[in-house]
């Protein structure tokens, strides 16, 4: 979610100050940014772009502005970017370029990070950032429509590949002195693309193959490219049932919860909409060149070649990871969950038949 601008910049200031104080004791520095720090550009090269405003000037202004004024100027500052996260990442890169001096520095820019492909465990993840919160809610059966351009590439990357690339970048930065800062875009869109439709369809397939326990409703949903249609469907499929569930909760003396959940999911889907309805081209020549100089053993140990990702297999492990590590459901519970899914499907068929005769 979008953090307050002053908090984001405050973190940036303190991080930079710590860097300046210790940089002379470092052999090299690798800064992990995001591929979307320049999301106002459709094509992003492995270079540091100048931000629209001077970072030091912005920081100076933030020191005397109150929260209300910060909130007022934030939309103007971030411009076409969707949130302060991408904006402050761009500022950080620019400040790093100015402050690094003679210290060897590199920047790694991952795209949308998902679960591990291999290490420390296949499918491992520990948060519901990005599309994972939507996938988790869909698996529970209470999220059924999202605004997305299904033909756009979903630029996804396993978290362990980001880690492996960062390790290799640190080695090369420390052992190969070069002028300036080298940037490594860490993304899959060029070498191993997958569309949002392919991703969502594969998720649905595996959500039903490896269902969760105690689903609210049979998992399903639709990608919609029309904003108005999606808003109407969201009201009917998300908020109307949520209000009904909360009314029933109050009747039975329980605390209402579903409207609050749907409100949070609506904010998450609005955040994701920016990335699922646009297309970027992240050039990754430096990343590929680094891979080419590694030994075969190092390529195997520190795998970050996205061409090695088999998307159907990876997405199945991702869904299993959501089940095991987010919902804490042991694989031994799958037979019972599958039985519950079949019972839920039987209810769906019965309700459909009843409605067809109305």
UniProtKB/TrEMBL annotation:
Entry EC no(s): 1.2.1.84
SUPFAM superfamilies reported for this sequence: NAD(P)-binding Rossmann-fold domains
UniProt GO MF annotations: alcohol-forming long-chain fatty acyl-CoA reductase activity; alcohol-forming very long-chain fatty acyl-CoA reductase activity
Function statement: Catalyzes the reduction of fatty acyl-CoA to fatty alcohols.
Reactions it catalyzes: a long-chain fatty acyl-CoA + 2 NADPH + 2 H(+) = a long-chain primary fatty alcohol + 2 NADP(+) + CoA
Name assigned to this protein: Fatty acyl-CoA reductase
Superkingdom of source: Eukaryota
Keywords: Lipid biosynthesis, Lipid metabolism, NADP, Oxidoreductase
Provenance organism: Timema tahoe
Every Fatty acyl-CoA reductase C-terminal domain range: 237-329
Family: Belongs to the fatty acyl-CoA reductase family.
InterPro entries linked: FAR (IPR026055), FAR_C (IPR033640), FAR_NAD-bd (IPR013120), NAD(P)-bd_dom_sf (IPR036291)
């Amino acid at each position: 979610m979008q953090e307050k601008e002053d908090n984001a910049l405050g973190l940036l200031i303190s991080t930079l100050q710590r860097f300046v104080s210790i940089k002379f004791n470092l052999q090299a520095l690798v800064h992990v940014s995001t591929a979307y720090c320049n999301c106002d550009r459709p094509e992003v090269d492995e270079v540091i772009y100048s931000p629209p405003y001077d970072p030091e000037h912005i920081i100076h202004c933030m020191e005397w502005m109150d929260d209300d004024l910060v909130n007022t100027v934030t939309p103007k500052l971030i411009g076409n970017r969707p949130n302060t996260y991408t904006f402050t990442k761009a500022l950080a890169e620019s400040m790093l370029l100015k402050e690094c001096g003679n210290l060897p520095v590199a920047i790694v820019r991952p795209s949308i990070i998902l679960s591990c492909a291999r290490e420390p465990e296949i499918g491992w993840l520990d948060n519901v950032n990005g599309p994972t919160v939507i996938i988790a809610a869909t698996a529970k059966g209470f999220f059924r429509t999202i605004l997305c351009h299904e033909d756009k590439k979903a630029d996804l990357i396993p978290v362990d590949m980001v880690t492996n690339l960062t390790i290799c970048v640190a080695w090369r930065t420390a052992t190969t002195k070069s002028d300036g800062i080298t940037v490594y875009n860490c993304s899959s869109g060029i070498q191993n693309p997958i569309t949002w439709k392919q991703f969502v369809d594969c998720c649905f397939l595996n959500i039903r193959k490896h269902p969760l326990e105690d689903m609210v409703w049979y998992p399903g949903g639709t990608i919609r490219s029309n904003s108005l249609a999606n808003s109407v469907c969201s009201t009917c499929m998300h908020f109307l049932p949520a209000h009904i569930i909360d009314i029933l909760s109050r009747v039975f003396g329980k605390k209402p919860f579903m409207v609050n959940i749907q409100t949070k999911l609506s904010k998450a889907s609005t955040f994701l909409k920016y990335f699922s309805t646009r297309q970027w081209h992240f050039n990754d020549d430096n990343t590929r060149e680094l891979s080419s100089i590694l030994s075969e053993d190092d390529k195997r140990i520190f795998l970050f070649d996205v061409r090695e990702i088999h998307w159907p297999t990876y997405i199945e492990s991702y869904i299993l990871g959501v089940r095991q590590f987010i919902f804490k459901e042991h694989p031994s519970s799958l037979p019972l969950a599958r039985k519950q899914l079949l019972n839920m499907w039987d209810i769906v068929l019965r309700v459909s038949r009843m409605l067809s005769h109305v």
